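Dear colleagues,

As part of the handover before I leave the project, I'm documenting each prediction I ran so the next person doesn't have to rerun anything. This entry is a single chain, and its sequence is reproduced below.
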Amino acid sequence: MLLKTLREEVLDANLELVRRGLVVYTFGNVSGIDREEGLVAIKPSGVPYDALKPEHMVVCDLEATIVDGKLRPSSDLPTHLELYRQFPNIGGVAHTHSEFATAWAQAETPIPCYGTTHADYFHAPVPVTERLSSQEIAGEYELETGKAICRTFNDIDPDKVPAVLVAGHAPFCWGPSASEAAHTAVILEYVARMASHTLAINAESRPLVRELHDKHFLRKHGKNAYYGQVKTQ
């Protein structure tokens, strides 16, 4: 089986979305990329999660040519591929329709950083894309979705804000691997839920001050990060 380890990781990342309650029925998808081979493994389209096996993951190149697998890939494949082409540091992409993050996407509203939980993972508000035009929707819709995401990050570092809300649609998240992309999707939903509750308690809530936002993000992700344990060989 081509890319056996990657397929197993991608399957487990997809199942993590189920374990965390971020998807129902056949919603959502996770992919992973082998940068050396230039190949992507992704969940097949419309297959129930409880029926998935590693060999069901579809393998294709960055031009969407299927190189291994008997099933159709996720219909969101062109979106994933555009992110891999434009964001060279990412190794996995996760797409869900999780309740609170999707509500913010439907409201076409970025998720502000109201507290340090958000700041630990995202170095800015989680942005929302512009609406697709009628022509983009009628054309290569999934590819245009990917392009809209990438345009949103013209002035945002995708390594520091590894998630986006697609207007009227739902979130996409990414990370260095498929498992970390799924992890980001879990955190995004948690942050989106807390932001919603924060505004319900106080509609005039203010974003976290920049200094505290920077402190929490950089102590985990900065060059002098000190959160967690020192990794040894």
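The first strand starts at residue 29 and ends at 34. The chain has a mean pLDDT of 96.

All the best with the project,
I.
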